[in-house]
Amino acid sequence: MGLKQKTADLKKRMREAVKGGGSKAIEKQKAIGKKTARERILSILDPKSFHENDLFVEHAGRDFDMDKKYLPGDGVVTGTGTINGHPVCIYAQDFTVAGGSLGWAHAKKIIKIMDHALKMKVPIIGINDSGGARIQEGVNALAGYGEIFYRNTLSSGVIPQISVILGPCAGGAVYSPALTDFVFVVDKVSKMFITGPEVIKTVLGEEISMEELGGARVHSEITGNSHFFALSEEECFGQIKELFSYIPWNNEKKAENFPKKPPRARQFNIDEIMPADPRQPYDVRDVIRSITDDSEFFEIQELFAANIVIGFARIAGQTAGFIANQPLVMAGVLDVDSSDKAARFIRYCDAFNIPLVTLVDLPGYLPGIDQEHAGVIRHGAKVLYAYSEATVPKITVIMRKAYGGGYIAMCSHHLRADFVCAWPTAEIAVMGPEGAANIIFRNEIKNAENPDEMRKQKIKEYKSKFANPYVAAAYGYIDAVIEPKETRSFLVHSLDVSSLKVDRMPKKKHGIPPF
Ligand code: HXC
After folding, report:
1. Alpha-carbon distance 515 to 512, whole Å?
2. CATH of the domain at 21
3. Shortest-distance Cα residue to atom 20 of ligand 1
4. Does the CB atom of residue 174 touch ligand 1 within 6 A?
5. Which residue from 100, 141, 246, 404 could staple onto 130, CB 3.0 to 4.6 Å apart?
């Protein structure tokens, strides 16, 4: 055969291989709003940038007549490409081929692209759409998962790892996404669970649909396993691209700088957001938008533990990670879920050189039997640990309440914040005036002729003494009391000054965080 014939032969083989599971299986996939594996990759990457690897890999199954089956690419598409011009590694499971189930050759393709990503120090994106371990391949399928989990752990904190759940992700398969940094889900498409409805019914007699058990909403609102929720695959791909505009390509780089843009001040006027009555709530996301470039804010886990808000935004062109108590939801308290949410995000930002901006307004940790028994001590400690350990620039703005453990936990100077400022509306104290007056003036109130009058008077006394920023300022626990409208310039200045910050933890193998 000459070159011409050999080229024709190559093209024929390629045409066969890219057919995946064939037109019937592809139709079934499309009928439920799903794209094919290759379409998904092409939708995420820059046009014409995808280079596929291992198109001709063949599966390794020999039992149950598997040796007679042709599984194109063994049900997974892998390769490299670019996003916003920067290189990434990517894989997408192809549900049309044996339900995207993971056999040894399938796993080897994923392992190979993961190793490549780690060596090249570029992000890895995994698109999951699979029935889990290929049952016919037995322990070899389990071995494949084990090798993937190990690499997820090795890559953690070195390169960004993104999981996109675009179909079933069942059984042990869920643990790869769970080990990665950001999990994207799509309504009615994504399904994640360790054991499916059938097994639950057999073992426990409980009945539940797949959607109710592990659908996109469940993981976005209840479990916190996912970080981004979309109504369609297209919306999800847009979210992935947006995320990549905020994060650096690996742990030795900084996020790309963008041209500076002022906030949209007419729409988000910082002086008009905080209500006059300190007991009234407001949406802290309006405060964030009043500070950030073009008032943009890329929120993460919007639907989970909404009493804390986390996400990325740019200030004078530079990415910052925002952590803010949300007075609109449960007065912004820290509880089990919000502590987990904040702590993980803080660690992400620290690993990837993203400065932390903390906006404080909380009455403290949530009291209650449920919370105590759910382990609020252990979970709450994660916030203390994550902030204390973080060596990136840490800037804190105390807007209103900073009571008790909440004051310490929300990146106080004591956890080595680099810059702490407070608004004149700040109240920094061991607890709120009402609770405090009831305890420390208990006898005066009880013995007074008019206890209600006495209580009011004592609350007033306590407020004027402690419910302000000046006591903390007098001890140097905050660096400045500023007007709200000065917040952006305070942050711009603090970020500039700390851009060369070097800070190190004591030498150790690793700490033991309260996981
Ligand atoms: C082999 C599989 C498979 C699997 C699906 N298929 N899952 N083949 N191993 N795990 C095959 C089907 O036989 C079928 O082949 C094709 O994929 C499409 O599957 P359907 O069932 O027709 O699709 P659908 O009705 O959409 O249902 C999808 C599904 C269901 C819900 C995912 O297939 C399912 O329940 N699969 C098993 C899920 C599961 O229990 N996985 C856990 C495995 S144990 P044909 O030839 O008919 O087209 C595990 C442990 C790993 O993962 C532990 C690691 C630590």
Report:
1. 8
2. 3.90.226.10
3. 99
4. no
5. 100
